[in-house]
Here is the input.
Amino acid sequence: MKRIFILFITSALLSSCVENTQRSEAQEDFTVVIHTSYEPNGLHPVNDFSSLRSHIYMYTHRPLLKVDLGTFELQPLLVTELPQSEDGQRYLYTLRDDVTWANGEILTREDMEFTLKMNLSPLSNNQAIRPLYSSVIQGYEAHPDNPNQFYLLCNEQHAGNNQILIEANLIQKSAWDSTGLFDSIPLERIIADEFERTDAINDYFERFNDASNQYEPEKLEGLGPYRITEWERGQYITLERKDDWWGDDENGMYFDNNPSKIVFRIIKDDNATLLAFRNGDIDVSNRLGTDELLRLRENEDFNANFESDFVDQFAYSYMGLNCRPTAKERTPYFTDKLVRRAVAHATPVRAIMEDLLHNQGGAEQITMVSALKKDEFNDTLDFIEYDLDKAAALLSEAGWADSDGDGILDRDIDGASTPFSFELNYMSGNQTTEATCLMIKESLGKVGIDCNLNGMDFSAFYQKAYQQDFDALMGAWSESAGYTDPLQLWHTSSWSSMGANFCGFGNDYSDSLITTYNATMNKPDRDALIKELQAEVYDFQPYVFLYSTRRKVAIHKRFENRETYNERPGVLVNSFRLDPNFTPTAPLAEADTAE
Amino acid sequence: MLNYLIQRLLWMVPTLLAIALFSFWISIEAPGDPVERLMQFSDDGSGSANRQRTEELKQEWRARLGIDKPLFYWTIRSSETSFPIPVPEFHGTNNQFHFWLGNAVRGDFGYSYYDGEAVGAKLWPKLRLSFLLTTSSLLLAFLISVPIGVFGASRPDGFFDRSSALVLFMLYSLPTFFVGTLLLLTFSNPDVLYWFPSAGLQNPITFDPDWSLGRKIKHWTPHLVLPFITFTYGSLAYLSRITRSGLAEEQQKDYITTARAKGLSERKVLWKHSLRNALLPLITVIGQVFPITVGGSVIIETIFTLPGIGWEAYRAILNYDYPVIVAIFTLGGLLTVVGYIVADLLYAWADPRIRYDR
Here is the structure.
């Protein structure tokens, strides 16, 4: 009896080591904890652009306008209406007059101009995204009469002109340029090649790019309803609701601010993540792995407390085939369209989805436009079925045969018998990618193609890709629900200038489709053009399209408004409200009892 | 003793230089262009007119990072004669290695490719946590294992000696990641025992940065219990068996027979005479604590999401963050050398027969 008593006391004492993490359940004061398996590399308002940074900025910052995650339509946020243009090149923006910064200052068009200057300056450390702006924006012009209006001048008439600012989160000029250093430097001069750099400007950007601006909360103030109050490196990032936020009286996905606190909790280990869900330490995750979510769903308490789903998104994986190898040492394996189609037939896409994604983690990707974009997706294109006989026949038609009986096809190329033994580059570190490569290798081997897997560091991978020094590569792209410019990935200029058209897709016709598409302002006409471009890509087969990865989402049932979206980040917790009718099961119920 | 210390410190110099050379070689051979990684350059795919300006920026960054200089103090090139002869070309101190070494000595290992933060500033706070965890767990391991070893040696092949050996070797054979995960799934699991938090050093909901240090320590302690146990258990078997075998060997020596013949109690013989002479192998382990701080905590900190240097190393490897990897490697080498010196000094303190002055 005595031993049992001691054991009971010890157990009770040890149990008290775990703090009661039950959050305040008042409708006006509750916390939502979002799980993340990695930490953003920085939250700089101009220089950083990770997907987690974008998610956090959904709550802390605001651009002038944004795409509605539900309808995919543009929505004005800091402007009174969508930008107006008569010629498709000169857009008039009208700022709201009730938007205020945290220190009470009114948002002005000078803030917008300064934001543009920082985003477009060649000295900002945002080299990866600056070209997106510089390829569209030509200049800025203040309206002569209305202090709330300005014009954005664009290089040419382009379908994406009115969306160019959807990711440009406003930064406060008085906080970043209190001395007015940039007042006398117009945006046009910053964009121009002859932008003169003085010592003062160099010093300024030295400070502007400093790493402290990436993570010190006071430097990360934006126009959103929340502010970052704490970033405990490697552990969590805390956002707190602002008092008297300018948008308090409005409703909607970009105006709701129901939770008083939002915490991004970083947990890398899978087991620790599963336990954190079970312990009630996490409320939401949009970054679970397929296996991880399936494992969680085996637990009754998890299912009782959490709603989980596999949500389609605008991202896809592909195997790129180098159609026009320029590097000397590369053998032209894939210059023949028949060979590329044969490889597509020999790639076990459905088996990959079944074995690696358990048929739930991904959906078939047929072309470069997501089937979710119903107006733009070309539904006349069929999925390329796995058919080894057809693949073998196509390869034979292309002149490949196993003439020496070694099990590997060969062909005469430039006077030499060349075995079909190509290199497939992939970025090492991702188990699913590695397993996908192995399945492709095994399957291609069945038709006599020797596929050598080459895992590499991501910088080396991209270096080879941009230099077009590869046979084939495993890649992935993500697009957005809104307008997507096909030029970067599919125009031949993007191949000849060593851009992102790594595989060398395109011809005069496809280029003209892209040019016309970008210059067409009428949506139905544009949809027809993008469908035609898809047919061209389908026929050319520069990629073997694999699958579109689904986002794995889990949300605690104690919340109402548990909407999920196809567009990133998939969940917006600022609209959550506590569900008064929800009855928690263990361990939350236990925590309640203890309280 | 002083001579020996000076001698050892002087020997440190070539060792450290060798480590530095190797680290530098890794940083040079790391794939990818450091400037492109740091500035995250991309192409707009349309043959940008800004390309020349981008190149100028890259050159500026190269100059800033010192990677526009020659690699080493000298290079060898072929003579421009019909019969090529290797000709050395000297660059003085204006070379990458000198620049790198000078910075490394000041604790400046450049900037992280992942987030652009200075590597030194990034690593020091994490090193503190890992060092605290390593030293305190090793201290606990000593406190437990030495009495176990002494007790086992006092009755060799007795029940306690055999049973403790069995249990400790079973523990020793279990890999750290397995024990860590097992502890997590047992003591942080509402389905089994929910005694300790599952991840992190502090709870974001309840932790208040304005708390007093005492209150903070109280909050952190439960978060550190499972990692602490995972760190400690592995050393127990090793240390207790070393103690036990060292003592058993000392027990056979003449001076112990003499001590017993003089009528000293068995307790005094064991703890006062035998133990001090059996300490030497244990001191070796103390020397290892320094490098373990860097290398031994990777798995544990990753399992328990502790923001220590092991977690940082894991993250750096995943993100191919070579400046951080090189810094951790160099630090590991430095701490190993320091550990050996500390161990040597402790040998001298523990065993007066070691006459380093001779």
